[in-house]
């Protein structure tokens, strides 16, 4: 799934919940969070400051020995294993 597909899926999921989000706005938010070639995103900036970024039950991003790491949250792990309620 590339950025455009991720944005489209996010727009569709938001619409299912009654929210109207434009594709362009979703793509700009993805860029702001994760960054681009020309601009670091807020997650990368926080990691550079050695902060942990918690994305709800999805998981957390943190630094480990100078490298970025991701630890999936319980809900994501359960969903992937098919054990989520």
Structural key phrases:
IHF-like_DNA-bd_dom_sf, alpha+beta, 85 residues, 3-stranded antiparallel sheet, single chain, HU family DNA-binding protein
Structure description:
- With 85 residues, this protein is of the alpha+beta class.
- It contains four helices and three strands; from the N terminus they run αααβββα.
- It has helices at 3-16, 23-34, 42-48, 74-80, and strands spanning 53-55, 59-64, 67-72.
- Helix 1 (3-16) packs across helix 2 (23-34).
- The two termini are 26 Å apart.
- The relative contact order is 0.09.
- This is HU family DNA-binding protein.
How do the helices and strands follow one another from N- to C-terminus?
HHHEEEH
Q: How many strand elements?
A: 3
Number of alpha- plus pi-helical segments: 4
* pLDDT < 50 runs, ≥5 residues: none
The gross shape turns out to be flat
- Measured as a percent range, the helix fraction is 40-55%
Mean pLDDT: 95
Main sheet strand line-up: 1-2-3
Beta-strand content:
15-25%
Head-to-tail CA distance between termini: 26 Å
Q: Tell me the structural class.
A: alpha+beta
Q: Give a quick account of the main beta sheet: strands, pairing sense, barrel closure.
A: 3 strands, antiparallel
